[in-house]
Design brief:
By secondary structure, the chain is α+β, with helices and mostly antiparallel strands. The chain is built from 9 helices and 11 strands. The strands form 3 sheets. A 4-stranded antiparallel sheet has the order 1-8-3-6. Helix 1 packs across helix 2 and helix 7 crosses helix 8. The longest helix has 27 residues. The chain starts with a helix and ends with a helix.
Length: about 220
């Protein structure tokens, strides 16, 4: 990828959309484009942060491995989203890993490049803090959901969430396989399958692999 392409992608990112062209050019000079084959680790737990990342294409899974070897998915990064900012500021090692679940392209915005901009533009500081705060709020909501809701409620909530974000709310596609989604929702895979079957049999959804048609939104929202 050439620097003009990188500059264009950076200027489209909400955090940098108000920067001057000269600032974008400066930022692009310290940004690296990386192609990440499916299944490749972008970074592992314990790695030092050399910058933060912006996903252009594909999908990145963030997660941890327990001492017993079990995987816990923290989140799925979609194109246009960034990750790794908080660790960059703390100047610590990553507490999680990042793995490409699809063929992916990312921009690594290096520490020096972003710190130079932050030193000179308070707008970027505000937007970066807003982005980190929004992600922290989502984590708090996820923790509350896991703590207070049962498996059925968590799965229904997730389906309604991706439905609200879909161009066609009645027709959604799971962004990953059931093992990954189940881990992210803290649901056992067999429970995930059982709940999906219950919702399907109740006439609320129609499941075809990762494709799901929500046939009764109100019924799904009120299902117990």
């Amino acid at each position: 990828m050439d620097k003009q392409f990188i500059s264009n992608r950076l200027s489209e990112f909400y955090m940098f959309s108000e920067l001057q062209p000269s600032q974008i050019t400066q930022l692009a000079s310290g940004t690296k484009a990386i192609e990440v084959p499916r299944g490749t680790m972008l970074f592992n737990r314990g790695d030092r942060a050399h910058g933060f990342y912006l996903l252009l294409e594909g999908q990145i899974k963030l997660g941890v491995i327990s001492p017993q070897g079990d995987e816990k998915v923290i989140g799925l990064i979609q194109p246009g989203q960034s990750f790794g900012e908080a660790v960059l500021f703390l100047e610590r090692s990553f507490p999680i890993y990042a793995q490409a679940t699809l063929e992916s392209k990312v921009l690594l915005i290096t520490r020096d490049a972003i710190f130079d901009i932050l030193d000179n533009d308070v707008t970027v500081v505000r937007r970066m803090l807003a982005g980190i705060s929004a992600r922290n709020r989502q984590l708090v909501n996820d923790i509350e959901s896991i703590s207070l809701q049962n498996s059925t409620q968590r799965l229904i909530g997730y389906l309604l969430q991706i439905s609200a974000e879909s161009p066609n709310p009645s027709h959604v596609q799971l962004p990953a396989n059931k093992l990954t989604i189940a881990s992210m929702l803290n649901i056992a895979p067999e429970t995930f399958s059982r709940v999906m079957l219950r919702l399907n049999n109740a006439g609320l959804i129609d499941v075809n692999g990762k494709d799901i048609v929500i046939t009764n939104v109100a019924g799904l929202r009120n299902f117990e």
